[in-house]
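Blinded run. Sample ID left blank on purpose so nobody reads anything into the name before looking at the predicted structure. Input follows.
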Amino acid sequence: MNKDFHYYGTYCAAIIAGYGHDAALETAYSAQFTDTCSLTYLKKTGAPLNAATTQLQSELINERTDIVSRQRITRIWSAFHFLPADLYSPVKGGKLYRNKAHLICGSDGALVKETVELAKGCGHQAEGLALHVLADTWAHRGFAGTPSLVINNTNDNFFAIIEEDGRPVRKRIVFHENIRAGDDLDNMKYIRSVYHASEKSVMNLGHGRAGHLPDYSFARYVYMPAWGGYKEIFKDNPNEYYNAFTQMIYALRYFKGDINSFETGVYDTELVKPYENEITDILTKRQLDASEDWKRLGERLSGEAIPSFDIDAYTREYAIASENAKAKTAAGKFFQAAIKQKSMVTERIFTSGNLLAGFSKRVGGEG
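Blinded prediction complete.
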């Protein structure tokens, strides 16, 4: 998912769930900050380096392909962007293939519930981070947060489903590696990572081989993932993003104390019903960035202005705080939430008998 949904969409969900403007803004900021809290940024901020929740392209390019480097990559991307759906699902094949297949991301898995429960009572920063992870399970379903050609590769049988004269029509998607050209919606041309035959290459991380397409809410497409034996799978992003939005509202009400427990497979469609048509219009509109539409809705819901996302909005306070006070700042709370989330996911992967994310440490440690 992109900033439009993680920042402005999360703000809208928080307001609908009953949050005030300031609380909604803090939560939305942390949801988007999860996509920007890199090792490079942490070094500049003077924050704990193990709180990294993403990796810049420049960082990934410089990563080696040894086991320790791949485990570091997997810890970050599996914990925050490609949460595994089922670490124990039956998978045919050798142990190494099974371990990789068990990291395939999916919605409503056991780790979604643990992620939400882990954030409860830990402040809006932990809530925003958890909502980012939850939302990404819908957008990134079918891809794994570990470098793997045999899992994440796709072939050229990739089709957008477009409605023409009231009927769904297939339009072939053309992928290319020309970064300067950008994504061209009118001509169905999208950037993707460069093909690399090495199983260990970072080019085969997550949905790199499908480019940014999974991050666009309007996208409906049919593709053939390597892990599925190149059999067709249909992905309906407008529907799945709507599920993500209503599930976020349900999680926010759990954080707020309106409900006593969070269960997977439950979506708050009642609170969102008055805005269903407008939200559906935003999700289905073919555009590279829906930020203005989400922003307009959010400001109408709250009656307050939503500032543009500023990566330094909360880390300035952290930088000037004393060592004893850093943990109590908003950024400090985010860093601690990130460390706990990464530790929890790493431990669950490790205890399933899977070493792709490395060895585990207890939740609250420095995983």
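Unblinding after everyone has recorded impressions. Residues 363-367 have pLDDT under 50 and may be disordered.
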